[in-house]
Amino acid sequence: MIAKWIGKRVIMGTIVLIIVSFLSFFIMHAAPGNPAAAYYGGNAQTLTVAEQERIEKAFGLDRPILLQYGTWLGEAVKGNLGYSAKEGRPVITILLERLPNTLQLVALTLFIVIIVSTWLGLRAGMKEGSLLDRGLSIFSIASSAIPPFWLGIVCIIIFSLQLGWFPSSGMNDVRGNGGWLDRLNHIVLPLIVLVISHVGIFARFLQDSVKAENRSYYVQVARANGVPDRQIRNLILRNSVIPYINYIGVTIPSFFGGSIVVETLFGWSGLGSLLVKSVMVKDFPVLMGAILIIGVVVVICLFVIDVLMICINPRLRRGKIV
Predict the structure, then answer these.
(1) Which end of the chain has the least Cβ crowding within 10 Å, N or C?
(2) 236 Cβ neighbours under 8 A, 6+ residues apart
(3) pLDDT tens column, 215-273
(4) Which of these, 254, 256, 249, lies nearest to 300 by C-alpha position?
(5) What is the Cα–Cα distance from 278 to 264, expressed in whole angstroms?
């Protein structure tokens, strides 16, 4: 049963990646601008039509778009994501340099968001109608409404320019030793922005689940029978955390989406800033590679979330795996 379930998830993840890459490929080629612009380099204005056609033919850009996509997909399956004309290096090499930085930022953000939102959501949900309950509701709406780039600019002005506590951009100090303390000092502001952008809505989701469980019949019976509050709270959290974990899985792509803005604003050398740079210079091989890698990471994260759900949900463990 488990092997069959894993096989289904692998097939579904593969289909999702193909659809994402297909749509991305065609949207990029439908956008204004010549896909071959990156291959022209700084000589785009001086190249003759014949020279441009020769370059396009050399890189297969003169063929029908379906054939181009099929060729790209066939090479991608083999691990070859193409060659960046702008960087002068294989795409996979560029991506593997940037991927750890994005994963570092997203993983730390997710970890802090889960810890803080669980604490806030449980506390506020157990004290319905309290100041914390109402304050969290207001904070969740406000934090999700504030654009991350605006919040990032405010953080730079306050914590970097005025207080001088943290650097405004980059990943390492040119005068530093490049150690983990130096990296930690640079990641604080991007983390603050991403955490504030997500923690409110995560806590609000758990808060509502805790409220619903707290009003349920079994909790009232447990209280009437004198069950200690700590045991009741643990029971409520255990039942509330199932939809919460499912919500985390659904929103994981938003962390990578938010990292695009934050990495660009703070000069964090990850996949997000690479995507923006690739769009600006029309480096399509890098763009497609970055989208595919992010898609693979998201599919893997969703698979882990599904496995976690099976571990904590008795109904799934009893064979209702679909």
Answers:
(1) C
(2) 122, 125, 126, 210, 213, 214, 219
(3) 888 888 888 888 888 888 888 888 888 888 888 888 888 888 778 888 888 888 888 88
(4) 249
(5) 12
